[in-house]
């Protein structure tokens, strides 16, 4: 039996949330290109309800989310304890999500808007506490994206930056059955609570082949800049050594990631306004060479590396930003999977050898093994 690696192309369930059919990304039937200028709250509502909201519904959702963007004192205390040791921010987030399920969700009745709001604030808190910076408080009259940016940067962003980052969050909100989303759905299929599903999703996102790719992209750019090596020489050496160039290629988008095309413009504009054009220029040189050499296009992780750097974030926190954006989609899929009520339990094909059991190990063999252990111990002493 010829099985596709990594379930590539295998349809395992139905969904009304998003689609990548024909290499076109749509949210509940709406092309992503048409949603890039929609507000984050609009897209949250769309993914959770599979219909566009009214003005009043957007306002109500925005008010609810902002009102819940506060963490219990006990959760903050525990995050501080976890963040004391030099751990990767995604490891801290993994533990924090699990903690939220115990310190904040005592009655087990937290609903998606509350959880999304707490996730955004928790991620901002992790970023601030790691740098020994004070935690900021939300402003009730601001939007979700503006508040979130304020919480992790400590400064009120300009309307232009809020609009650009809102697009970033929208583009990352969902992406069909990617690794972390599928992981969340598997756990959700057992009817586990929301926080358990989210913890599992965070674990899957942490890997460098999934959410962690944006961190690796910036490490590559920083190394090129610090060493002074020509970017093309660097890439050629990496390819010759058999190493993967992070941020390129996609299992679904063979002719270019539609999200990357939009993010490129945002990365260029942010780089220009923050004196970081050197990083964007490096990306352009690498992207042109990679297409010429391998015919691979940049994916969603490629340009977010520069975008997050321009926002003042350390590269180790980039994947937490991905988690902040993707929580919207995770929650949508968890709800859909739990409503479906079917346990996900695939089968596998055994390819090992077959054997016949002939009974317990003979006494002679056992004695021989025991003697060797005793002799080894005596020799060591």
Automatic annotation (TrEMBL):
It comes from the Bacteria. PROSITE patterns: CITRATE_SYNTHASE (PS00480). One of its GO terms (cellular component) is cytosol. Pathway: Carbohydrate metabolism; tricarboxylic acid cycle. One of its GO terms (molecular function) is citrate synthase activity. GO terms for biological process: carbohydrate metabolic process; tricarboxylic acid cycle. Gene3D superfamilies: Citrate Synthase, domain 1, Cytochrome P450-Terp, domain 2. InterPro entries: Citrate_synth-like_lrg_a-sub, Citrate_synth-like_sm_a-sub, Citrate_synthase, Citrate_synthase_AS, Citrate_synthase_bac-typ, Citrate_synthase_sf. The active site is at 250, 301. Keywords: Transferase. The keyword Lyase does not apply. It catalyses: oxaloacetate + acetyl-CoA + H2O = citrate + CoA + H(+). Belongs to the citrate synthase family. This is Citrate synthase. It comes from Paucilactobacillus nenjiangensis.
């Amino acid at each position: 039996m010829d099985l596709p690696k990594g379930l590539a192309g295998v349809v395992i369930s139905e969904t009304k949330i998003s689609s990548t059919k024909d290499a076109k990304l749509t949210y509940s039937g709406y092309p992503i290109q048409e949603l890039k200028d929609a507000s984050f709250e609009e897209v949250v509502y769309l993914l959770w309800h599979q219909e566009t909201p009214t003005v009043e519904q957007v306002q109500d959702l925005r008010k609810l989310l902002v009102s819940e963007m506060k963490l219990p004192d006990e959760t903050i205390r525990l995050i501080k304890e976890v963040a004391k040791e030099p751990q990767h921010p995604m490891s801290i987030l993994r533990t924090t999500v699990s903690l939220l399920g115990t310190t904040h969700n005592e009655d087990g009745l937290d609903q998606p808007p509350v959880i999304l709001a707490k996730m955004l604030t928790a991620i901002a808190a992790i970023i601030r506490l790691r740098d020994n910076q004070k935690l900021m408080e939300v402003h009730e009259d601001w939007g979700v994206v503006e508040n979130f940016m304020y919480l992790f940067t400590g400064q009120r962003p300009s309307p232009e930056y809020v609009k650009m980052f809102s697009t970033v969050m929208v583009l990352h909100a969902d992406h069909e059955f990617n690794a972390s989303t599928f992981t969340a759905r598997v756990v959700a299929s057992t009817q586990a609570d929301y926080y358990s599903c989210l913890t599992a999703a965070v674990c899957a996102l942490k890997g460098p082949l999934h959410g962690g790719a944006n961190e690796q992209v910036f490490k590559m750019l920083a190394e090129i800049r610090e060493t002074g090596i020509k970017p093309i020489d660097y890439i050629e050496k990496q390819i010759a050594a058999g190493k993967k160039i992070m941020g390129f290629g996609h299992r679904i988008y063979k002719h270019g990631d539609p999200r990357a095309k939009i993010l490129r413009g945002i990365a260029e504009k942010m780089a220009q306004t923050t004196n970081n054009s050197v990083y964007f220029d490096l990306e352009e040189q690498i992207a042109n060479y990679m297409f010429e050499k391998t015919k691979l296009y940049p994916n969603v992780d490629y340009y977010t590396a520069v975008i997050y750097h321009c926002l003042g974030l350390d590269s180790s926190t980039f994947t937490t930003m991905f988690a902040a954006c993707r929580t919207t989609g995770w929650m949508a899929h968890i709800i859909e999977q739990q409503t479906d009520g079917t346990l996900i339990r695939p089968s596998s094909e055994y390819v090992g050898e077959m054997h016949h059991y002939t009974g317990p190990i003979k006494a002679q063999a056992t004695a021989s093994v025991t003697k060797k252990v005793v002799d080894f111990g005596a020799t060591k002493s």
